[in-house]
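Thread: "does anyone have the structure for this chain?"

Original post by V.I.:
We have the sequence but no experimental structure in hand. Need at least a predicted one for the grant figures.
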Amino acid sequence: MKIFLDFDDVIFNTKNFKSDFFQLFKNAGVSEKEFQKTYYKKIREGIKKYDLENQLRLLFTESPQKLEKTKKQIEDFLTDLSGYVFEDFYWFVNKVGEEDLSILSFGDEKMQRIKIENSDVSRLAGDYEIVQESKGEYLERKYSDIQAIMVDDRPDQLESADQRLNNWQLIRMNRNEGRYADLPDNGRFKTVKDFYELETLLPID
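Reply from O.Q.:
Generated one for you, tokens below.
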């Protein structure tokens, strides 16, 4: 059975990544308040995503030297992101095999692609897709004729799938390290803490 895995906070320790990423801006004199204020770009009502070029433009418009120096440091930083992958993901891939795994990520396509490929996760999963709509809308459009498993840390993405897909198994991975661990889901979805717990919920062939 096909398994769609979210990337951020499920496979990838985004909280640690974002903290280390901020240090590059801090070194250039950017405060945490300024960093957070410019981190997300509003796309439409209720939808926002990270846009690196937009953030750099907002923060360094009047400092071209700082801009070029920070861009070079960011480029170097993003070269190898394998250290942010949760260890249990490797175990899970070895356990279930990569052929049925798909990464389904929401966010800025350029940054998400860098994170997925430079963390080497793209090599360990069958394929990956980066979407700009809700995951429920995307999956309904492309996979409504199959039964599958969707794993995500965000209740809103699971709810969008629940409204549109029949007979899918929807599972929330709510890691202690996750940024959305405190978001309520009213007990609507089965919840696991890691890939070890997820494996126990998979159907036995």
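V.I.: this helps a lot. Residues 26 and 32 are 7 Å apart (CA to CA).
O.Q.: and Strands lie at 3-5, 40-44, 47-50, 101-106, 127-131, 149-152, 169-173, 190-192.
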